[in-house]
Design a protein that fits this description.
nine-stranded mixed sheet; Umud Fragment, subunit A; alpha+beta; 268 residues; 434 Repressor (Amino-terminal Domain); 2 domains; 11 helices
Length: 268
């Protein structure tokens, strides 16, 4: 039972004194102090009052040790992504922070991908990944960068680094958008997603490269979902071959028009 430590943690996190909270909840400061120090047990009415005040479900206040959550997880909880309010599975994300407690962007390169399927939930594994920051990304969201391999998502080239924003509630996955997904069997995949979780309990994954066939991914095969944000590559994109014949045709027409104009001028 974590109620006593949670309400004290939340109060201090929000910069409130015991007098502030006690006044807001219409109770004596000594009563609040008793709850925080675990010398008194709150009744249901008091539990509901704390839940309403902090905007966090009663079950969360009682069953989850909030002091163990990362900064990102706490921010998501405070935005309303609460397991007992949303009714969805609680997904605890292992993450790392810098010396100022800002969320890092961890880099899962080609070598690290081999162990990511088993180490994604291990704080020790995440802690040793290379980490960096991108100033143009929001500090209030969680990002991670993965190195992709293969040609299934051309024109995004092989060995590119794709960055994703963590998706805590999979029902908000938008169809026909790119996502990085950690799967139970295939590891990390980068695909265009069609969300059929609500109707059929699965995602349909397809590639930008038409040579690859779409396939199904059942919900129980999904470990993590990251919404595509951008990619970084050292390769220069290939010239668009389909446009070259058209461009040449246009040039030929221009030359023919110029020739006709010159002939008309000479005739005059």
């Amino acid at each position: 039972m974590y109620f006593h430590s949670n309400i004290k943690f939340l109060r201090k996190r929000r910069g409130r004194t015991q007098d502030d909270v006690a006044m807001a909840l219409n109770m004596k400061r000594s009563t609040l102090s008793g709850y925080e120090n675990k010398v008194a047990q709150p009744g249901m009415e008091a539990l509901m009052a704390f839940s309403e005040y902090f905007k966090i479900a009663v079950d969360t206040l009682i069953k989850i040790d909030l002091t163990t959550l990362s900064q990102y997880e706490l921010q998501q909880l405070e935005r309303g992504y609460d397991i007992y309010i949303k009714g969805t599975e609680l997904r605890v994300l292992s993450t790392s922070v810098d010396q100022n407690n800002n969320e890092n962007i961890e880099l899962v390169n080609e070598k690290a991908k081999a162990g990511y399927g088993t180490g994604f939930a291990d704080p020790e594994f995440i802690k040793v990944l290379p980490a960096f920051h991108l100033p143009f990304l929001s500090k209030s969201k969680k990002y991670r960068t993965f190195q992709i391999s293969g040609d299934s998502m051309l024109p995004i080239p092989d060995k590119s680094y794709v960055t994703g924003e963590y998706v805590i509630d999979w029902h908000f996955i938008r169809s026909h958008q790119p996502y990085i997904i950690l799967t139970r069997e295939e590891g990390v995949v980068f695909k265009i997603v069609e969300n059929r979780l609500k109707e059929e309990g699965k995602l349909m994954l397809s590639s930008l490269n038409p040579l690859y066939e779409p396939y199904e991914l059942q919900a129980n095969e999904i470990r993590e979902v990251w919404k595509f944000v951008h990619y970084i590559s050292s390769e220069m994109p290939d010239t668009n071959r389909e446009r070259e014949p058209l461009a040449e045709t246009v040039k030929q027409l221009q030359r023919q028009v110029q020739a006709i104009q010159m002939k008309l001028q000479l005739d005059v």
